[in-house]
Amino acid sequence: MPPVLLALAVLAVAVYHGAGQGVLGIPVPVGASLLLMLRRRCPWGVYGGAIAAAAVPFALGLSSIAVAPAFLALLSLMTKVPFRVGLLASAIGDAVLLVAHGPVGITTDDTLWAVGWFGVSLLVAALIESRRRLGHEAAARAAWAERTRGEEVRRRMAEDRLDMARDLHDILGHSLAVISLQAGVAEHVLATNPEAVRQSLAAIRQVSREALAELRAELTSWRETGRDGAPHHPVPGLDVLPDLIHRMERAGVQVSFAGTTGLGPVSEVTGAAVYRIVQESLTNVMRHAGSGVPVVVRIAGTRESVEVEVEDGGRGVPALVEGTGIMGMRERAGAIGGWVEARSLDEGGFRVRAVLPRSPR
Fold it and tell me: How far apart are CA 355 and CA 351, in angstroms?
């Protein structure tokens, strides 16, 4: 209730009971009511003044309507101070008003009134504290949600950069390896076999054109979608594996590939992972084992997974040091719940084996 309306109500009650209020019966409770106008600026001062305005008539043996403004001042104070401080203020005010009755004697009604004062203020203080805690918890949850949202954005950005780095590594690494091999062949037969040189240059031109087209599609999709979950350009999958094998054979790698007949349907992300793992494995064969090395590519399926195996007949690697290629294969498989094993074989050669889920969850 606004202080002015309270003052008018107190004034009406004081006038109605004016005979028992004495000379202080009207100005004291009205003044205490108007004092509430300052409760936001000076809550402690208003509460102290209201208690005094209620206690003075009691000490003079008069009834005091100023108890109502005093209690409202207490409730206003409780909204601004901690729970325990509010209860302490209630107890002090209660004690002051009870002691003010001392000269005329404290009756049972006075005691019950004092208990009621403190009991009601305790209930109100508990409600205010509960609301305050709920507000703090809501603010904490909102702050936590904001931090989590920021962390999630940063995590997605980091994952997006890693995905882009892997894609660019696979595209550029494979294309440059083929170009390097074909350039080496052309240099070797430059003076003796012009036709072989022409074929090597044609292969270099074809691989370069394909690499540029793939890079352009990849960068365009990143620029347009920002990696927001929408599908990008069609990613290479199991259906274009024969084209990859054909390109590697033209580059001089002897690939034995039985195809994917009978494999059954797999998700797009699994098909893309299979393609990239086979591509990177064959690229590593070109880099480290050279042309003319026989390679076997096996792809098989079970009810829940797809198994990929790329094994070459080269000299192997005495001490395997994982580069970005093998690391990228592991990350690509791990991102969809699969795994990759890469190791040299005891009888010579190198094997990459991957097991990927058909439909990642």
Answer: 13
In a domain, 77, yes or no: yes
State how far the Cα of 27 lies from the Cα of 47, in Å rounded to an integer: 17
Collapsing DSSP to helix, strand or coil, 343 comes out as strand
- Greater model confidence, 152 or 230: 152
Mean pLDDT of 148-162: 75
Name the pLDDT band for 320 (thresholds 50, 70, 90): low
Computed over every residue of the chain, the mean pLDDT equals 77
* Other Cβ atoms closer than 10 A to 289: 20
Helix (H/G/I), strand (E/B), else coil: 346 = coil
CATH number, domain of 297, equals 3.30.565.10
- What is this structure's pTM? 0.50
Q: How far is CA 23 from CA 16, 29, 218, 266, 298, in A?
A: 14, 12, 92, 95, 108
Residue 284 located in a structural domain: yes
Nearest Cα neighbor of 281 from 261, 316, 310, 302 is 310
Residue 185, domain member (yes or no)? no
Domain end among 72, 106, 140? 106
Out of 82, 106, 130, a domain closes at 106
Sequence-ordered list of residues with C-beta below 8 angstroms from that of 37, at least 6 positions apart, any chain: 3, 4
Nearest to 160, CA basis, from 222, 215, 203: 222
Structure token digits, residue 196: 């072989």
Taking alpha carbons only, the member of 73, 31, 30 closest to residue 51 is: 73
The span from the CA of 231 to the CA of 318, in Å, is 42
Q: Which domain holds residue 344?
A: 236-361
Q: At what angle do helices 67-78 and 43-59 cross, to 10 degrees?
A: 150
**Residue 16 pLDDT > 80, yes or no?**
no
Q: What is the pLDDT of residues 167-216, one digit of tens each?
A: 777 777 777 777 777 787 787 777 788 887 887 788 788 778 777 777 77
**121, 90 Cβ separation under 8 angstroms:** yes
pLDDT digits (tens, 9 = 90+) for 80-127: 888 888 888 888 888 888 787 766 566 666 677 777 777 888 888 888
Q: Which two tokens stand for residue 256?
A: 């034995």
Output the pLDDT for position 238: 86
Domain count for the chain, please give it: 2
Residue appearing with tokens 């108007």: 34
Give the type of residue at 334: G
For residue 281, being part of any structural domain is answered with yes
